[in-house]
Amino acid sequence: MSSFAQQGTSKASINQDREAEKRRDNALTLRKKKKEELLREKRQKASEPQDGAEPSHVDEAEARRIYEALPEIARLLVEGTLEDKFNSAQAIRKVLSAKEGPPITRVIELGCLPHLVQLLRCDEHHQVQFEAAWALTNVASGTTEQTREVVQNHAIPELARLLSSPSEEVREQVVWALGNIAGDNAKNRDKCIDEGCFPPLLKIIHSEPRLTTLRNAAWLLSNLVRNKPSPPFAKVEGVLPTVAGLLSHADKEVLADACWALSYISDGENERIAAILSLNIAPRVIELLDSPDNCIHAPALRAVGNIVSGTPQQTQTMIDGGALPRLGRLAGSGLPGIRKEVFWALSNVAAGTVAQARALIDCGLCAPMVEALGSASFEVRKEAVWAITNVTHARVPEHTHAMVMARSIPPMVELLGMARSSTVMVKEMLNVIKVILEFCENVLAVGESISNRTGAENVYKNEFIECSGLDVVNDVLAANPDLMKKAQTVLRFFPEQQAAFEPEMQDINLEPTVTDFKF
Predict the structure, then answer these.
(1) Which of 31, 228, 268, 391 has the CA that lies 20 to 30 A from 457?
(2) Half-sphere exposure of 497 (CA within 13 A, CB side)
């Protein structure tokens, strides 16, 4: 039998190889949206007064005045006294805190960045450092090109150094700036890590800082472990106890970023998952699937999905912790992104041991998987196809019967026809077709095995014919001859059809393999 999912360690590699790039692509929109919304919110917060301070935002008229004076402000930033430089940095910070259209490019063109970085070295003047860090924060909140300008002016080493500043105000602003930089791309993230950001950052988190500082620190922590390629596990393993602690924090923003950090760290080799489970984090992560807040249960769901893609033992830990009923509840989410993640996780559970696939069935998850085949989202349907096929991959009669009784054959055949009729036969569509054909083969093989033992009709074959499955498979074959071998594994159950293709099939071994379970 050609199985799309195997037991043991190969299960993780097959599913992870299939999903790794896709997960990154599909997650990118959500992660970018989260980052953009958060940065926009923080820019707005940065322009508002805190703790009764004098309002720091500027109205449109003042913003225009500062913009027109930028050449002179830039000159004083270079040539003026320390007080002139402080006032210049503050003016730049104010104009860059504008809610709409901050003139980041203009500030860069005027050569302000190296001099703002220089002001970070004024250790005797914390307010100067604060204003310079704030201005650099807002530059780094712009486009990737604008963030690159900050990095190329050697801001990271100075900002990393100031994570240990005696001023909490400076530390908080520096954390903010580094969060913008590290979150932009993996190269920036690695530079921040290599400059030693983790030790002072963890010290900040454990020092019981004010809530705004902790929120920014948790956000920076999540950005230091995100983006692909992932940082070497040896460089991030030490933050896991801190992440575990933040998972119990009462603040929603802190908790959400801790969940995202865990989801990023858990995405990879089984060594990562083992380290996470060794800290007894699993019960809390599973519990967070019940959170009413999407910003929390979404990253928690990603982490659970990553963990169940590990070894059978790691998957079992999540099953024993009660993950399956909670995944079942999330399967009814109105958000396609959440449903896609749910069925991806379930596909990994179904690809585990026979007992794990049985646990999925016993939790009543066959019906939600079949229902998902009618989703308007192709991504949801695709993940449901994988989950359903993985339930049948071992050809255990009880498992296959459960999927057939959930009425999986008609919608799977219908989806096969829709995929076949696609005007663009891209790789992703071909993969879906192959997986559905694998499902059809599994079901027909089990039905034939039962029929041979009992002498009864192959009822699965009859249902397949009734929903025009045979016609659809022939259409698939006609539309794409490259699928000959895979289609013939289905057509072999219909000898009159197979005969037409005998010349092409001489080298294909079609002996069925069915797990010998009592039915």
Answers:
(1) 391
(2) 19
